[in-house]
Here is the input.
Amino acid sequence: MRLSGHTRRTAGNSVSATDLDVLLRRVARGDQEAFADFYDATRARVYGLVARVLRDPGYSEETTQEVYLQVWRSAGAYDPASGTPLAWLLTLAHRRAVDRVRSEQAVTQRESRYGATTVETAADQVSESVIISDERRQVAACVNGLTDLQRECINLAYYQGLTYAQVSERLSANLATVKSRMRDALKGLRNCLGVR
Amino acid sequence: MTDRESEFETADLLSLAVPYALHALSDAEDEVVEARLAEAQSAVVNAFFDEVRAVRETMARVAILTAAEPPIQLRRRILAAVAGDNVRAITPDASSRRTGPRWRSAILTAAAVLVVGLGGLGIGVALRPAPEQPSKAQQVFAASDVRTTSGAIPVGGTATVVYSHHENAAVLVMNNVPPPKPGTVYQMWLVNPAGATSAGTMDAQAVAPSTTAVLPNLGDSTSLAFTVEPNSGSTKPTGHFIAELPIS
Here is the structure.
């Protein structure tokens, strides 16, 4: 059982942007202890997002390792003016996961029956492994506040790695409609979560 | 351009900020958006990246819903992988692309000054805004043994290296080098008879459309070489040198 024998403590923890910022500065100077702390503070969010997109434990581990190697090598490039450390990190993780899922897409399509089974299993594992917290409830409420169509667009684009043109084909909706659904979805989430 | 065309172009580019931020554009579409941003007015560029930033902060909050513990052995593997890894991404010696044309013109000015101003004129260009002390780049420019070498990169564009062994550092200026293919980086190597040591990597963001970076610790290197490497780079060159500039 892959979740046994280690702590789930950090899954629901909020680590302050300042703490992560300080850790990243130390990582940029080659501080391995700071890197280990940074990993522990963020690993559940990174691995969980990557696994949600890739839906394959082996690919997800490889990609998570690439993400953190990139953090080690490019921590000095993090610019606080461009956003919080967590947003920087998860942007990097999502980019790598999407690149990987697109390069594997042909294989996935050939094995779509098997793939569909894998999705359900992965989703179950994710929900089991997450600590229920106030933050999680608040975010879930905001996501549930979206319309079904908006959620579907975000799901296909962000979690399945489709381009918005592919989303419009999948939903038989025109490009402008898909773009505005995505934009409305993000606007709704942003307002609900109070992201400035 | 009429006001109406200008307005249309603005609205259209901004409507791509959300799919851009969600990585929901193809590589080709990403390139088109980035090319348009390079030509756009700074107000448009700022509005675009404000939206990109907000989308990324929002999705970072949403990531709590997908949080899942990785297998415990992954921690050991990752910590082992970074121990002793000396590859570093190049940090462009200026603020990020968010500032758009302003940033580009600062870099291009710096590059132009390198070309025309290397006659001991006391180069006053500030690569960072209002540095409190002379930057390493300025120290290299001002060094008594400063030299410059330049060459074409076969994939396109040019690399210019301004270096001083006395200051033990070089300033690299890359102009019009196309971004590396997705999933790869350009990697620079300091080469001496004993072998090649990583001098840093450049990804698509670092390279376009022009970048300036300080490379410290020249040591007894005799050349600066360039390779294309997978992912975030390699500890030893895995590809052949696509370019090599002498720095001895």
Notes: Chain B touches chain A through 57 residues (CB under 8 Å). Chain B has a mean pLDDT of 80. The longest helix of chain B spans residues 42-62. The radius of gyration of chain B is 20 Å.
